[in-house]
Amino acid sequence: MNVVVCVKQIPDPATPYTLEDGTNWLVRPEEQILDDGDRYGVEMGLQIAQANEGTVTLVSMGPAGNGQGIRQALAMGADKAVLIEDDTLRGADALTTARALAAAIKNEGFDLVIAGTESTDGYSGVVPQMLAQILDIPALTYATKVEIGDGSLSIHRQTEAGYDTVEASLPALVSVTAGVVEPRYPTFKGIMDAKKKPVDNLSVADLGIETAVDQKVTSIADAPERAAGQKIEDEGEAHLAIVALLEDRKVI
Amino acid sequence: MATYVFVEEEDGAPSTLGLELLAKARDLGDATVFYVGSGSDETFAELGNHGAASIVHLDPGDRLPAAPVAEAIGARVGAEDLILFGQAYTDRDVAGRLAARLGVGVLSNASDVRQVGGGVETDHEIFGGTRIVTAAAGQGPFLVLIRPKSFAAEPVGGGKPTVDVVDLPAPGSSEATVTASQTEEREGPQLGDAKIVVSGGRGLGSADAYGLVESLGKTLDAATGATRAIVDSGWVPYAKQVGQTGKTVKPDVYIACGISGAMQHLVGMKDSMTIIAINKDPDAPIFSVADLGVVGDVHNVMPKLIEALESR
Predict the structure, then answer these.
(1) How many domains are contained in chain B?
(2) Residues of B in contact with A24 (CB under 8 A)
(3) Superfamily (CATH) of domain A2-207
(4) Terminus of chain B with fewer CB atoms < 10 Å: N or C?
């Protein structure tokens, strides 16, 4: 079974994000990390591939930098990676991203495509669905549990009220929520092996896709700030200040 | 430019998020609702009461709505039209597939939308809501995903709308089937509509310490929430998550316990009327949005707070 896992390298969310002057694109340092939300998809892919004599191919788009984030996913055990990087893809919107990923995934061949539900840095939240539409396959989204059957799959799909059980035939795409599986930590051997695993670099010309982006940023402004609040040190009585404020707001 | 609103049925009624979008749409012109669910005279009257001029009823039955509903909507909208979706599960499924089908973009995570000339302009809060980006799309149909709680749902006493029942297209290669629906046991106030929300983060130190959040929540008759960090760690279920990935809340009072205030979390709660934060780290970003910040250990402050409230 060919399992493709979509992953993204993002600037470390623990560091402040900034925008490039002029373009308003997110500044992407040379060293990026694997989006934490993608570790669940990688783990899921590894488990499914292992149970079904399959391989796991990572597909990613964005400035490669030093490739550290991709190596993290390879170190977990993925077999190889395809990295799409092209100057014309900078500032790409969700549809352009989905077109690029879909073209690379078609090239690789697939039975199952796994993605997170959204990236931590861009969070448009629609790339997996667009990808499924372009690939003309079902999208089983927001999975909290995934089971692979004979030529089919079944998931628990997160809903507002609880979850739905959703089934479809393969090939299909599944988007996974954090917590769907427990991601493994890379072993020392995994980290060493990752350095030797194949990473294919592809450009827009290699993929033959449209990259026209229809959206533009017209302005950026600071949001109105909240009025400064009061900050107190707890010396044993701070809870009384909270009680007083709750009384003042008439909620108790 | 025709204005459409995507509304999904929840528990046999239009979702609150759908009604929020309708409140915005009716300001932009005559609003037509794409209603996804089994539908009834009551639900249609409710939509009319919230200002829907007409309804296109799409009943997916046991089919996952994404593919057939996107195809049906795609066949009805023109290049001038605006369709409002919520930043919610099924809305994202349909909007994503619809956009790829039509070859247009999606303006995601919008907090406001305006018609400008023949186009559409949207506002988006970034970096935890500290900056606002205004974006524009050139080519329609214009698909906009709006964050929950951006507008207030409000009945306007509109009459009964016209209802056009549309058969969904036959299943194709993107078909998926919903074979069962499970409702999780829900006790007490819910995150979306509670007056008080008590949330916990990594600063609690352990999954067991989330019990403090639950106790405080119970004492205050509040809903309980969590940060992505502790949901990812498996301390509490995903349904409790407040933030970019998760629920947006706007209660009268939000109490953040052991929460540092990552951008991801702030965007989901910063519009609460009053914010109280308890955190050991005096430099935690949560204090920048807190009306009352207590620099202290949650394990000291919370038990005393619970006791003080209980003895009132």
Answers:
(1) 2
(2) 133
(3) HUPs (3.40.50.620)
(4) C
